[in-house]
Each structure stands twice: as C-alpha cells, then as structure tokens.
Amino acid sequence: MNKVFDSPAAALDGLLFDGMTIMSGGFGLSGNPESLIPEIRAAGVTGLTVISNNAGADGFGLWMLLETRQVAKMISSYVGENKLFESQYLSGELELELNPQGTLAERIRAGGAGIPAFYTATGVGTQVAVGKPAERIDGVEYLRETWLRADLSIVKAWKADPAGNLVFRKTARNFNPEMAAAGRRTVAEAEIIVEEGGLDPDQIHTPGIYVDRVVRSTINEKRIEKLTTRQRETG
User: CB of 154 within 8 A of CB of 187?
Assistant: First the structure.
C-alpha cells in the first residue's frame, strides 16, 4: 500500500471542513507540521478547534491560523509568549481550554487507545478541577479527565515509508505519536521518505495503521524559539 501524496495540498484534499477539530503535533517549535499548516490556512476553513501543546510563535506554526482568525478554540497546555494568542483570548475572540501538560498528553494518548476517561491527581484543589467529577481512591482524591480525539491529526516525522510507518527525531517525538493515533484521519509530513522496507521495525515510533496519508515536507526551517548562547571559554 502506497500512502504517499505528491504535495501537502494534495495530502489534505477532501479532509478539511469548517468547524472541525484538528490535532497539530509539535513541542514548542520542534516537530511542527510546517508544510501542512500553511495549506490549512490557504484552504480557508474556519471555526476550527485546534488541539496542540502550544499555538506556535510569532509568524510561525499555528500562529498562521490565528492570524487569519480561523481558530475558534484552542485546547492547549502552554500559551507562552504568543502575543496574538493572548490578545485574541483576552478580547473574547478565542476560546481556551488550558490543560496541565501531562494531562493533555494523557488525554490524547487515551483518545488513541480508546480509553474514554481516566483519573489523575493533577489539578485537584485548583481551577483545573472546576466542573469535573472527582473520586477518592485509596484515600486520595482524583479528577476524572476525558479523552481527546480529532477529525484530523497533522504530524511531522523525520522518516516515513510508503505504508505510513513513522520515525520521529528527538524532541519532535513529543505529542506527535500520540496525536497520530488519536485522529480519525492522520496526515504525516516527513523530511525523508524511504522505500518499502527501508525502516528498521524496531525503530518505528508510529505504525502505519494509524496513518492515512504521507507527504514529503516542503518546509524544514526548524526555528529556535529562544536562542540562548554563552561566550566560548578560552583555554
């Protein structure tokens, strides 16, 4: 089975619609589906609910969809220093569901695993607990959190094969494998697409059964959100 498409636009063709829920992989700016996000912007779909650890940075990542007012709601963990995100939220343009980072990751993993709810101690006694069922287990209070799933997951891999098997690299592995499993349809962009049999089975992070379409990434900027340097020590 060959799941490889010729371009990011072709890989998304027929999958986008107004009001849909999209999971977008990445951790900060690492592992962002850089080639697919601009195509969603170009498609002009609106009223989107986007599930992602964060909403990109100024001029990059999901910021592109915020700029065009295509996002109605973000389900995130870190809003960071994205001034556009901040202004849209404070003005009431953008709905925000803020999650502790570990809880967000587990909600996504649960969605891919078919587990509709789970219990966690994270957030007990805080604003996070408002409106959520709680239960005392072995003398400890836990919150009930529900799974997250999406109409479409977009992820960025380092390597892929024609069957959709994916390998992620370093920090880009955060969130991407879980999101690939939690989308009803999953499109993966990859820096390298190898021939069939070109991936070591023991190194595959996401099996192709979770991936519907694959495309070679056309944008690989890998920007650094905050570059920190120090003077080289002299001998």
Answer: yes
pTM over 0.90: yes
CATH class of the structural domain 4-117+147-216? alpha beta
Distance, in Å, from the CA atom of 172 to the CA atom of 19, rounded to the nearest integer, reads 27
Q: Report the distance separating Cα 15 and Cα 2, nearest Å.
A: 18
DSSP 58-126: TTBTTHHHHHTT-EEEEEES--TT-HHHHHHHHTTSSEEEE--HHHHHHHHHHHHHT--EEEESTTTTS
Give the model confidence (pLDDT) of 129-162 as tens digits.
999 999 999 999 999 999 999 999 999 999 999 9
DSSP string, 138-174: TTEEEEEEE---EEEEEEEEEEE-TT--EE--GGGGS
Residue pair 189/217 in contact (Cβ under 8 Å)? The answer is: yes
Residues 196, 160 contacting (CB under 8 angstroms) = no
At residue 150, φ and ψ (nearest 5 deg) are -140, 155
Q: What are 141's strand-pairing partners?
A: 136
The H-or-E segment that residue 39 falls in is: helix 37-43
Handedness of CA 208, 30, 74, 4 (dihedral sign): negative
The Cα–Cα gap between 185 and 87 comes to 32
